[in-house]
Amino acid sequence: MPAQHLLSPFQLGSLSLPNRLVMAPLTRQRSLQPGNIPSELNATYYAQRASAGLLISEATQVCAEGQGYAWTPGIHSAEQVAGWKQVTQAVHARNGRIFLQLWHVGRISHPLLQPNGADPVAPSAIQANAECYVQEADGSHHKAATAMPRALALNELPGVVAAYAHGTANALLAGFDGVEVHAANGYLLDQFLCSNSNQRSDAYGGSAENRARLVLQVVDAVVATLGDSSRVGIRISPMGTFGDVHDANPQETFSYLVEQLNSRKLAYLHVNRPDWLGGSFDGFDQLLRALRDRYQGTLILAGGQTVESGEQALSEGLADLLAYGRPYIANPDLVERFAAGAALNQADASTFYGGGKQGYTDYPTLG
Ligand code: PHB
């Protein structure tokens, strides 16, 4: 079935999107070392995919403490800004639009990835039953269990918010069209949102309102830095369990959060289905419907989407835009393939993370 509604234009704030396909944020671990700096290779990869309505960059750490995997890019140094500038220029030269995803992994890390070998930070000192990816001093690299984190003190939280604002200012310098706050998939902001990873007894723990406080402060700081709420999106993953997070009452937590976000007139709310990252589908559709009904703005739906599921979500009014991840790894011309009803290349999971061109910029286009 060729796509129809998916190929219709969409107005996202002041950005005119030629279609409703979004390239989902995808960790690929291919930044230049040392320094986690985006390169010409990364620019080629994104530019190849520029016919998407909107590209969202791979998750990008806003500060050195925000890193949880070797070779992921940052947006906190001047070299990284210069590297990202090559990416945005290449995408804009192909008439594309690209947001940067602002990331802090919190407890999904290890002293080997942290400045001065420190412990990673988290809302509470609760170790995740999860993995990160480290590089040893001798250059060898491997998966590792995440370390026991240190609970952030109350007086450190303004510094965390400031790191997101700094990342946003740098994203503007680098020429991005906007930013997405990563509040999904068990990373720092999701660790604050979810009850099993946040056992704080101050104003940032306990009630849904308290657990949502940090993410809303981050959103407000990012909007203030950008000076335009219509250039700021946010990604959430209600009912996801990746990173060993679990919320006792996702309906209550995410309904509260979404109501608060609604009044902020953001570019979009990006909702990740529990798909490959694990989590429960039981009740997810009802929760998504409830969130959709509460949220008046643009909604992006991601996670295991096909042409058929995307068309259905659009026709049911469940989503306005559809994000594709694995299909975008393997099909730089996904828009053209959907338009032609053409077969898709299958993504090779062995080249998802790390390495060079292979499995990155060498997937063939049609014709
Ligand atoms: C990952 O590197 O496995 C990863 C990164 C960011 C996500 C999800 C997974 O949001």
Notes on the protein architecture:
Helix 7 (250-262) packs parallel to helix 8 (284-294). Helices cover 30% and strands 16% of the residues. Strands 3-4-5-10-11-12-13-14 form an eight-stranded parallel barrel, surrounded by four helices. The protein has a two-stranded antiparallel ribbon with strand order 1-2. It is an alpha/beta fold and 367 residues long. The protein has one domain (10-328): Alpha-Beta Barrel (TIM Barrel). Strand 1 and strand 2 (15-17) form a beta hairpin. It binds P-hydroxybenzoic acid. Residues 27, 59, 69, 184-185 line the site of P-hydroxybenzoic acid.
In short:
With 367 residues, the chain is an alpha/beta fold. Helix content is 30%, strand content 16%.
Characteristic terms for this protein:
TIM Barrel, alpha/beta, 367 residues, binds P-hydroxybenzoic acid, globular, eight-stranded parallel barrel
Helix and strand topology:
Elements (H helix, E strand, L loop, with lengths): L9 E3 L2 E3 L3 E3 L16 H9 L5 E8 L16 H16 L4 E6 L17 E2 L8 E5 L5 E5 L4 E2 L5 H17 L4 E5 L5 H6 L14 H4 L1 H14 L5 E5 L13 H13 L5 E5 L11 H11 L4 E4 L4 H9 L5 E4 L1 H5 L3 H7 L27
Helix pairs in contact: 1-2, 3-6, 7-8
The structure holds P-hydroxybenzoic acid.
Parts with pLDDT < 50 across at least 5 consecutive residues: none
* Helicity level: 25-40%
Say which molecules are bound, naming each kind only once. P-hydroxybenzoic acid
Q: Distance between termini?
A: 20 Å
| Count of DSSP-assigned helices | 11
Radius of gyration: 19 Å
**Architecture per CATH nomenclature, i.e. the level-2 architecture:** Alpha-Beta Barrel
The CATH class, by name, is Alpha Beta
Whole-number total of structural domains: 1
CATH topology: the name is TIM Barrel
**CATH homologous superfamily name?**
Aldolase class I
The class by helix and strand makeup works out as alpha/beta
Tell me the total number of β-strands.
14
SSE order, as H and E?
EEEHEHEEEEEHEHHHEHEHEHEHH
Strand proportion, as a percent range, falls in 15-25%
**What would the average pLDDT be, to the nearest integer?**
98
Order of strands in the sheet with most strands: 3-4-5-10-11-12-13-14
Q: Estimate the global geometry from the Cα principal axes.
A: globular
